[in-house]
Amino acid sequence: MKVAISATGDTVESSVDSRFGRCSFFAIFDTDTHNVKFITNTAAESSQGAGPAAVQLLAGNQVQQVVSGEFGMKVKPLLEQLSIKMLNLQNGQHTILDVLKQFK
Amino acid sequence: MNNKKPGFTIAVASGKGGTGKTFISTNLFNTLQKYSYKVTLVDCDAEEPNARQFTGGKKVSTKLVTQLVPVIDESKCVYCGKCFEYCTYNAIFFVKEARMIRVLDDLCHGCGACTVACEPYGAIHEKEDELGTVNHYEITPGVTVVEARTKVGVHSSVKVVKEAIRSAYDADVVVLDSPPGTSCPFIQTVASADFVVLVTEPTPFGMSDLKQSVETLRHMGKPCGVIVNRAGLGTNEVYDYLSSEQLPLLMNIPFDRSIARIYSEGNLLTEQDDGWQMQFNLMYNLITERYGISCNKW
Amino acid sequence: MELAVISGKGGTGKSSVSAAFASLHERIVLADCDVDAANLFLLFNPVNDEEMVFVSGHKAVIDREKCTDCGHCVSYCRFDAIDVRNDEVWINEIACDGCELCARVCPEEAIAMVPEADSRMYSGSFRKGKMVYGRLAPGEENSGRLVDLVRKQAKEIAKKENIATILLDGPPGIGCPVLSTITGVDHVVIVTEPTLSGLHDLKRAVELTHNYDIPTSVIINKYDLNEAIALQIKAYCSFEGLMVVAMLPFDRRVVEAMVHCKSIVEYAPDSEVSKLLQSACKKITHGWAVGCV
Questions:
Q1: How many Å apart are CA B6 and CA C164, to the nearest integer?
Q2: Does B112 sit within 8 Å of C194, measured CB to CB?
Q3: CATH domain C58-116 topology
Q4: Chain B residues within 8 A (CB-CB) of chain A?
Q5: What is the tens place of the pLDDT at every residue in A52-91?
Q6: Residue numbers in C near A19 (CB within 8 A)
Q7: Which residue in B210, B279, C17, C119 has the fewest CB atoms around it within 10 Å?
């Protein structure tokens, strides 16, 4: 299964970006192979609708679960319909590595 | 659109919020009404219309402002993604692998590009979607307030504002209470004015915003004048600026606790003070003498 | 910690409050999110070390060499932005929404989408730490994206410089830019004034912060200009469970401070307004690791 985590940078030391649609990068972790790759969140550049555009980006990457600080009203129903699970990470400083450990 | 020529149109604007823009426009409106003009006040601050708190009036009509948004007939859709590619607003959500396509009405600007994209398949037709309302209130026959009001969450108030201004043609004088700032809705409002009254405060913040507004209006070729509100609080720098830029000082309203109180209670200064009423009328005459010929192009 | 100062309505004295809060901290990152009318830089005169171009959108521009004035694009435009004048096709850049449809349907490929790149974001240093601010070019849509950038930059700087508090001076109103300012912050202060429209706009701002579950407190500025309405506002706040952290009297020195490019706390530290703001700042940051000095 592929898990996407919203990230502020493109290394595992970067922290989790609390925003979903406008985060800088997504860390995509494959729970079977334990591979991590970082993709630039191209949706963040949109003047509007960054959230839905980010969902499209992740769906295109066969992501089945997303970890982020918050999911907006526009984003939730789309993720639900695509059967992509949402994991809401409450406030606090987490690095990408902290989150990955939970899945390993 | 009507072909009737609108009356002389004055926009009251300010770069910075809270300088007393609504205070000026409602009092100008009230004064002109007292001097028997057929006058219409258009509240163009569509996100937060509040002019009617001061003017009152009975609602005579409400007009829905809509835009056309796409509806996708999934039985005809071939999931080619061309409409998605044509949409620059992220309003079409498309995941090819999952054969999932949705229109996000909130994000749609109604440009019609997706409908054009789908012409070969005809899977998109359009429906009307509400952007807001234009409400007409009558004070006395011929004296009206038009209020533009956007629906909460709508991306832009431009269309509703345009529609409100357009519906105010049946008057000798039209006063536009412009949205604050110098962004899109402001430009749309002042674009249809013959003259712009800028309201400022004599503070560094007020000055900085005034300069930006003046530059923007000059770029647009719109004549303007300035009202200094809450004079005496701040500096005289603004007057030097006006004379060096050859901008007319239309009125100087001193800071006065009693004026602040009248405004705070939702009342009109020109209703309670004949002297101020005369001042507003003098200002209007000054403007029309100099810029009286309506140069509106509709 | 991120603290945002907003006001439903413009002109309530929001920026003066933000300026005072900034000077009450030892070190702070101050982010001016009022990108339509940024003005805190006038007061604090930061030395900028970075200037970034912000592309706010795109506009259609006709290549006169290629255009045959066939007028095919005119009927497609839903924004009344294309006109034919004296047999020449002409795009009104004010009305253009940037949808790109004209460019797509043009048989001569004579229309290009050109980025609007007149807006800027600046970051620099000032006497109380670091400052970030955005300036949106006139006529451009304030979508909140520039606010997002300003906040992102502020966060990065805070992390790099190890500064605990970020203060956001928000835009007026309740639209997209305000939402971008308050989402995810730790506390919102709404500055209001004792007028009926002030109360009306306060209610709308409160609805917003309640929707996002953000701890909110209220400052009633210039309360003595209409004490009756100030009391009405206070009653509304207690009904809504909002803490009124200060009721500030009208004081000419607040404006004088601005004229002298100072916050009221710097200009008249012994004034009642300064003292009240200091206690308000303490109440708000109470419980945080790093508070006001």
A1: 57
A2: no
A3: Alpha-Beta Plaits (3.30.70)
A4: 89-91, 93-98, 100, 102, 104, 106-107, 155
A5: 999 999 999 999 999 998 888 889 999 999 999 999 887 6
A6: 148, 183-184
A7: B279
